[in-house]
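Sample entry (258 residues):
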Amino acid sequence: MRRITLFTLVALLALGTGCDTSEKETAKGGRATGKAKATKKRPGERLREAVARTRRTSVRIEETITVRHGTEEGIATIKGSFDFARDRGELSVALPGTGRRKETFSEGKVFMSPVPGRPRGTWSVTDRAEAKAHAPLTAPLNDPEYVLEQISQLRKVSYGGLTGYPPHRAYSYAGWLDFDTAVRRLDRRSRAVLERARPAIGDYPVWAHVNVTEDGCVERIELTSILDGTSTDVAIDFTDHGTPVTITPPKTTGAQPG
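Predicted structure, serialized as tokens:
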């Protein structure tokens, strides 16, 4: 495979209502009520229900992307808040040595500033549904809902029991993403590189661990992959479920296509 610098890979990776239920799971994966019926549900089904609940609420987000190759390490961080139910949010993206960039999601568009190579104060705008990822294990324009969509398609989901201690405990799940799900919205060039390498790397597995709150919402996602000697770890924390999210969309006048 053609190699790229660690810094470039990290840069590409980042270029990229309250949650409640009266039917809480028990430590064995059932519910506090109707336990006999709940035991028929498989871990994958319970995890998909948690994803669906999360997509009906809002959260604060903290994400870290760590890329390692040999002795080199690069880290990107993403912070902000997102209202999945109303399809809007604001993220602050920090890349090594480049400062922070703001991303605003509103009305099916993603606005970004500053824009490399353009005057300060310039915004670029991209259709959210058309955005592409530019490296494996990444979300287009760091869209957190894309990651939730991937998690809902995990293969061979297993239940790992309760983690943490009262009053904060979570249900742990694990699984993996298949090749097509992992690269679904990669840009054409990046996907072609992986397609050519597929005979050697197999299904390009991405391992995932997900924690779900006792109220039934996703609170942490961990994704891990190793490809051509480079390991990528993504950790996303969703907190303050149901928090109000206020955004200030930039004026579309003068915004340039991203």
